[in-house]
Specification:
The protein is built from six helices and eight strands; from the N terminus they run ααααββββααββββ. By secondary structure, the protein is α+β, with helices and mostly antiparallel strands. InterPro entries: BamE-like.
Length: 193
């Protein structure tokens, strides 16, 4: 469902009413704590629906810091810290978004690169025998996970902008019972059901 001004305003009014009811009968410290939690919840919500142009606005490789990235983009889905002190932050754009950004931070705490990883070039890097963790590191959180007990198979799927006639498609990675890649596939996005 698309987010409209009306639905955003309704969400804000409902949260404000809920906060007013919750805050009645609380002391100042409890109120401050609840308001802080409410602010963080709203920020996380708006970061998750922020258009890409606003999400990435003002972030410059070699200049922007880890703290600036977090302030601008919000809390990452995952954060991996490597032995040299560098980091990789994962930002999937919605449960069925067409983009996932990997943000690389150098050992000096400065932004190195922001990469949209749901691309044909990255999909081609997935190979037979690779672990689930390796795939997650490359492509980020899947939009869908399906478990097929009779086939002893788990399939992770990412919706992506394929272009061409169908525009959007799913890239699927199939894992065997050992959690290793057995194959990959492509499927259409079915609309209207």
């Amino acid at each position: 469902m698309p987010l409209t001004f009306s639905s955003t305003r309704s969400l804000a009014v409902a949260c404000a009413a809920l906060a007013a009811l919750t805050l009645s009968g609380c002391d100042d410290r409890q109120i401050d704590s609840m308001l802080d939690a409410l602010r963080q919840t709203f920020k996380a919500f708006f970061d998750s629906v922020k258009p890409d142009v606003l999400l990435l606005k003002g972030l410059t490789p070699g200049v922007s810091t880890l703290e600036q990235v977090r302030e601008q983009m919000g809390k990452p889905e995952t954060e991996r810290v490597f032995e040299d002190g560098s980091r990789r932050l994962e930002y999937p754009r919605g449960p069925q978004g067409l983009k996932t950004y990997m943000v690389d931070i150098g050992p000096d705490g400065r932004l190195v690169a922001i990469t949209q990883v749901l691309t044909a070039e990255n999909f081609a890097k997935v190979y037979i025998g690779e672990s689930q963790d390796d795939v997650r590191r490359l492509l980020g959180k899947p939009g869908q996970v399906a478990v097929y007990l009779l086939k002893k198979e788990t399939v992770w799927s990412w919706k992506w902008f394929e272009g061409g006639v169908t525009q959007e498609a799913y890239f699927n990675v199939h894992f065997g019972p050992d959690g290793r890649v057995t194959t990959t596939s492509r499927s259409d996005v079915i609309r209207g059901h």
